[in-house]
Amino acid sequence: MKHQLDFEKPIIELQNKLEELRAQPGKHSLGVSFEEEFKLIEKKLEETRRQIFQNLTPWQRIQLARHPKRPYTLDYIHHAFSDFQELHGDRLFAEDRAMVGGFARLGSHPVMVIGTQKGRDTKENILRNFGSAHPEGYRKALRLMRLAAKFGLPVITLIDTAGAYPGVAAEERHISEAIAVNLREMTLLEVPIIAAIIGEGGSGGALGIGVADRVLILENAYYSVISPEGCAAILWKDRANTAKAAAALKITAKDLLELKLVDEIIPEPLGGAHTDPAGTAANLKAHLLHNLESLQGMTVDDLHKARYKKFRAHGQFLEETKPTALATPLAPV
User: Fold this and answer.
1) How many domains is the chain built from?
2) How far is CA 220 from CA 1, 5, 115, 159, in A?
3) Which of 72, 159, 169, 219 has the largest CB neighbor count within 10 A?
């Protein structure tokens, strides 16, 4: 099995045993049937798969979020949307193929769909810049959002990026300014916005298209200000602590929902989205439609107020008040 993850080894071993049995004749040389043994291994395989995937650690979920066979933005657009018409260019500098977007239809609703896109092989990864957009990618996204607002179309964003491109060229063209402008403009957009984190949700690169009225996340996706590897390198000076950092960061879907940083978790098939892309896309579509229909009855003023309240409420902290020391009275002169 290609792209085997460490924690999947018990599953792979059982699958290999099943394959060996299938390759055998119908009966053992002594006339014993393999059917009973086959059923026992099949049952054990199902139990093992369920036990592993229902008890994943944060780091294991992050590995699934990065799985090279996981569906990407264009895969979900193909399965969950119809009539997609891709638009190109930011009208300022260039076309960025790490950011895709255009008009589409979600069910019966015309929408503008925008998302970060990774590549499947070396050639496509170079074309898509590994899903890390340049400033022109965020400016293209903003152009499409403004176009959507002009025609009164809801905006749907699909987030799957390790982060915005951190190279010299991106800095020269003001990547931080491009993302900051998107944050401001998305808060003021006069149409409903729904964001869905479908894989990696890394840093400002994700947030640049993530300011939304509803933020959804797939079960094995993550959303974080920094990668677990980066966090481990900073805090422990050693990337061997990556799994420890992943747990401490609270960046998986369940933690994010508890912290009220996302609104809903979209279930994935047992084993991850890559085991059933069409089924995962159907789940995504159902959740997008449900949230879109709940938002479309709201006035622009109500959208703005709810959006402002939502993001102002982000973040949790503890405040400790220390008793003030009593002033020592001055001695009489």
Assistant:
1) 2
2) 21, 14, 18, 13
3) 159
Distances (CA, A) of 98 to 88, 134, 170, 172: 11, 8, 13, 18
Task: Looking at the structure, tell me whether residues 287 and 196 fall in a common domain.
Answer: yes
CATH of the domain at 139: 3.90.226.10
Model's pTM, two decimal places?
0.88
- Identify whether residues 76 and 183 lie together within a single domain: yes
Maximum pairwise Cα distance, the chain: 113
Which parts of 24-134 fold into alpha helices (H)? Answer: 35-53, 58-65, 73-80, 122-128
Distance CA 223, CA 163 (A): 11
**Local confidence pLDDT in tens for the 333 residues of the chain:** 467 788 888 888 888 877 777 776 555 544 556 677 777 888 888 888 888 898 899 999 999 999 999 999 999 999 999 999 999 999 999 999 999 999 999 999 999 999 999 999 999 999 999 999 999 999 999 999 999 999 999 999 999 999 999 999 999 999 999 999 999 999 999 999 999 999 999 999 999 999 999 999 999 999 999 999 999 999 999 889 999 999 999 999 999 999 999 999 999 999 999 999 999 999 999 999 999 999 998 999 999 999 999 999 988 777 777 766 555 555 565
CA separation for the pair 161, 195 (Å, rounded): 13
Asked if residues 138 and 208 have their Cβ atoms less than 8 Å apart, the reply is: yes
Q: Mapping DSSP to helix (H, G, I), strand (E, B) and coil, where does residue 282 land?
A: helix
Q: Do residues 190 and 283 both lie within one domain?
A: yes
Same domain, 83 and 168: yes
Burial classification of residue 238, based on how many CB atoms lie within 10 Å of its CB (0-12 exposed, 13-18 middle, 19 or more buried): exposed
Does any domain span residue 12? yes
Do residues 15 and 115 share a domain? Answer: no
The amino acid at 180: A
Domain interval for residue 14 = 6-23+32-55
Q: Count CB atoms within 10 A of the CB of residue 248.
A: 14
Does residue 48 lie in a domain region? Answer: yes
Q: Is residue 15 domain-shared with residue 131, that is, in the same domain? A: no
